[in-house]
Amino acid sequence: GRRKSIYTRRLKKRNKKVIVHLHGASFFKYYGQLTPEEQQRLAKTLQSADLFIALSARWKTEYETHLGLTNVAVLNNSIDPDIFAPAVSNATRHMATILVSGRICRRKREYDLFDARALLNAKKAKLKCMMAAAGDIDEGKDTNHRLQLENMAEVAGCVDQQQKLELPRRNREL
User: Fold this and answer.
1) Quick one: DSSP state of residue 119?
2) Measured between alpha carbons, how far is 5 from 43 in angstroms, rounded to an integer?
3) Exposed, middle or buried, 6 (CB in 10 Å: 0-12/13-18/19+)?
4) DSSP 3-state assignment of 91?
5) How far apart are CA 96 and CA 111, in angstroms?
6) What is the pLDDT of residues 105-146, one digit of tens each?
7) Cβ partners under 8 Å of residue 65, min gap 6
8) CB 153 within 8 A of CB 131
9) Euclidean distance between the first and final Cα of the chain, in Å?
């Protein structure tokens, strides 16, 4: 927020083109803590950017609605399926297998999966889940242990590109 505003203002004073991207949920938390004057100044600065990039239509709408931006373009946060072709598994044999990657945090709702698995575990359902992501790894492992889900889930933490390709195969054997 603040640093990008400073850079944007400095660059625009020098007649430079500016493209901005902010991480939505973190940004709106920060934005909500600003005074109305600070919010107005920040919104005006972001409106001055030549292009503002959002990673989905939903975030585009959020930025347009809350900041009055008219310079928002959507750049879908996509995954190249060719890179992950070696990770494809037999969906018929592994219907009850979930691999979660991305970020483990309450804001992104991954903790709902712990609660859902606890319900399924109580019903003796056969579900396997691997959470391979950045974020609150220790809290995720503690939650997994507290809910006694080790038999059906693993919180692996951060993984590199090669591990992302290997995890679906590994997940089959959890």
Assistant:
1) H
2) 9
3) exposed
4) coil
5) 18
6) 766 666 677 777 777 777 676 767 777 777 788 888 888 888
7) none
8) yes
9) 42
